[in-house]
Amino acid sequence: MDTVRTETGNDDRNDDLLSELLQPLRLTGVFDSRWHVRTPWAIEGDAEQSCAVLHYIVEGGCWITAEGQPPQELHAGDLAVFPTGTAHRLSDRPGRQGVPLKAVLPERQPGTSGEIRIGGTGPESRLLCAGLHYDASAATGLYKALPWALVLDGSQVDREPLLRDTLRLLAAPDRPIGPGDRLITLRAFEMALVLALRPLLREFAENPASLPVLRHPGVSRALVMIATRFAEPWTIESLAREVGMSRSAFTAAFRALVGEAPARHLTGRRMQEAARLLGETSLPQSAVPERVGYQSAVGFHLAFRKWFGVTPGEYRAGGASAA
């Protein structure tokens, strides 16, 4: 009885928390490739930093495996997303040792495309694969807490027609190329990533137990507060008090579930908003500190430079690309 009431009472909180995950996602570059593979084959992908990885099975099928995880089979129409770029293997069957991805695609610069033809004389599979580079400073604690791989089967993809049609267009061998293609491709993959996450997030909202951070009422509430009320003069003590926990218990639980200390998470959210204000608005630079929760302009300047490696003025003038 108590458990049911808790879950029902947390619906709005979970919706807000899931919105926090989607809102800041913004890709900075994409490398995509079309794979034509025949059995026997296997490719080992390295861990990617600040990069989500996407695999869409156009034809045939494959297995995905990662260290410490059970193998999972994919069929035509299925989509697999690795939100944080966990190292994994793609193969025609579990357990087959593969060649490193960098051996068959040595150059994978964002904004470019590639093609792989590998394997033997057996049945062919075709895949669309992409590395989706994102701004690491905008990755929320909830995003980092997502499972190592998220899989949508073909029927789930079909229930998202815009996702299905976007993937098919991106996978087409005669995909149109012309002026603005790099930006169009970037935004198309960005939309595909968000659309792929949406049904999975809906599942998390209906079943909070499937994502550990959602099971903890204090930590999940704190995440929403940091996401939406970051400009308030929070301290770790006041955050803990607001969610009804002691400072030590709150800090320990937050670090265990989110993967970073609450103070760093709060700073990251403030820096994310500061970068947005500096890069996307004409708000005077002098007004930014207060908008993101800093009472001291000097304190904000030092925090921003430590976080991004450039000053707020340099960031606004174009130094963001160097961060």
TrEMBL record:
Keywords, ordered alphabetically: DNA-binding, Transcription, Transcription regulation
Stored Pfam families: Cupin_6, HTH_18
Record's protein name: AraC family transcriptional regulator
PANTHER family: ARAC FAMILY TRANSCRIPTIONAL REGULATOR (PTHR46796:SF7), HTH-TYPE TRANSCRIPTIONAL ACTIVATOR RHAS-RELATED (PTHR46796)
Organism: Streptomyces gobitricini
Organism ancestry: Bacteria, Bacillati, Actinomycetota, Actinomycetes, Kitasatosporales
The keyword Transcription regulation appears for this protein: yes
Gene3D superfamilies on file: Homeodomain-like, Jelly Rolls
Superkingdom: Bacteria
InterPro entries for this protein: AraC_lig (IPR032783), AraC_XylS_family_regulators (IPR050204), Homeodomain-like_sf (IPR009057), HTH_AraC (IPR018060), RmlC-like_jellyroll (IPR014710), RmlC_Cupin_sf (IPR011051)
Domain HTH araC/xylS-type: 220-318
